[in-house]
Each structure stands twice: as structure tokens, then as C-alpha cells.
Amino acid sequence: MEQFLTPEFWVAVGQIIMIDILLGGDNAVVIALACRKLPPAQRKMGIFWGTFGAIALRVVLIFFALTLLQIPYLKIVGALLLLWIGVKLLAPEDDDEHANIQASDKLWAAVKTVIVADFVMSLDNVIAIAGAAETAADHHQMPLVIFGLLVSIPIIVWGSQMVIKLMDRFPVIITLGGMLLGWIAGTMMIGDPAVAAHLPQTDMLKYAFGIGGALLVLVVGKLRAARTKKAEEASSDAA
């Protein structure tokens, strides 16, 4: 029980909640799109079961991710993916990933749509949450993941509009979120069995890798965003 009162546990919980807010906001959009044609009486049921199924699926995926991350070099691959996700968070591409979400007037068809869409879109969440859970004690990783997901459900589903408005008003939230992913990537990379065999696993080195990952995401993300903005301005002038 005392393990649940350690600073590491609650820091990891905070990371998981922030990751879900930043990367899981699309869940609310998917649910709304998939359930919009349901009769009003069934809409709440569609939202509930769609959310429940999507979260249950994510817990299963994260369980496998935590297991697979014990294999040499896979943490390095996961860290590189997280760095890319962090960069994309700071410099998003202009694409509509919800264009293929089909609404249905049948309850279970809508629920299936939510779960399938969440499966397709959940790779970034799964990797990031598994990386954040690595900071907790091994035997508390899954309780940590489940607790973090449960806390973030109401934030994502019912508070998504408020979160989006806060992000629009305070863009620094997005920047800090991207840097958090870079931090997790750095600490994940140094913990890979292939790397750990050659480097001392000290807190100082772990923090150095984390800071390096955060700064890398910040610099590359800002440069990419500036390049995209410049290209858009040039295209607008040409038109």
C-alpha cells in the first residue's frame, strides 16, 4: 500500500492523465461522430459502452506493450516513436483523420465503430502511457495504468471542449505536453536492456536523457512548425 503513496507513483499518474488529455481528446470526437445518428434514448448508452470498450481495449494493448518493452531494443524503437509523436504535437499536419468515421443508427454498430476507430488511433497513447508507467515499480504498473485511464475518462469525454479551449488560449500547454513526451522517450531509451548493459543507471544520467529528449522535441517541433508556416505563407502569396 505504501508504494501507492510514493512521489514516483503520483508523478506517473499525472503524466498518464496529461498524455490522455493531449493525445486522447480525439476520443470525444470519434464518439460524437459515431453516435450522432442514434436515437436520443440510445445515445447515452452508445457513449457509455463505446467509451468502456475503447478503454478496456487500451488497457489490454498497454499490458502487451509493457511486456514487449522488456525485449532489447524495443524501448529504443518506442522512444523514437514518442519523439516523433511529440514533434507532431508541436507541429500538427493539416489532415482530417475523422473523415472515415461512419455514423450508425444502430447502438452496437456505433459502439463497434468507436472501438475500432480507437484501436486504429491509439498507438501514440499506448506507447506514451507504457513509457510513463515504466517510472513506477514493476508490480504496480498495471494498477497505475488503469487508475490513470479511469481518472482521465471524464476529462476526455465530458471535458474535451474545455480542454480544447484551454489549449487554444494557453498554447504553452501543448508545448509542455510535447516536451513531456520527449522526456518520457529519453528516460525510456536509457532503460532499454541493450542500453542499460553499457550505461550506469543513475538518476543523473536518467534526468540528462529526459531533458535531452524534451529539448529535442521542442527544437525540432518549433523548427518544423516554422517551416510549415513559411511554406503556407509562400503558397498563399503565390495564389
Question: Layout of helices and strands, plus pairs?
Answer:
Blueprint: H1 7-23, H2 26-35, H3 40-68, H4 74-90, H5 107-121, H6 123-133, H7 141-169, H8 172-190, H9 193-196, H10 203-238
Helix pairs in contact: 1-6, 1-7, 1-8, 2-3, 2-5, 2-7, 3-5, 3-6, 3-7, 4-6, 4-8, 4-10, 8-10
DSSP strand (E) fraction?
Answer: under 5%
Number of domains: 1
Stretches where pLDDT is under 50 for at least 5 consecutive residues are none
| SS element count, helices | 10
Biggest sheet architecture: none
CA-to-CA gap between the ends? 64 Å
Shape: globular
The total strand number stands at 0
Mean pLDDT reading:
76
Question: Structural class of the secondary structure composition?
Answer: mainly alpha
Helix content: over 70%
Order of helices and strands: HHHHHHHHHH
Rg to the nearest angstrom? 19 Å
Overview of the structural elements:
- The protein has 239 residues and is an all-alpha fold.
- The protein has one domain.
- Helix content is 78%, strand content 0%.
- The protein has ten helices and no strands.
- It has helices spanning 7-23, 26-35, 40-68, 74-90, 107-121, 123-133, 141-169, 172-190, 193-196, 203-238.
- The chain is globular, with a radius of gyration of 19 Å.
- It is found in: Membrane.
- Keywords: Membrane, Transmembrane, Transmembrane helix.
- InterPro entries: Integral_membrane_TerC, Integral_membrane_YjbE.
- Belongs to the TerC family.
- It comes from Caldimonas thermodepolymerans.
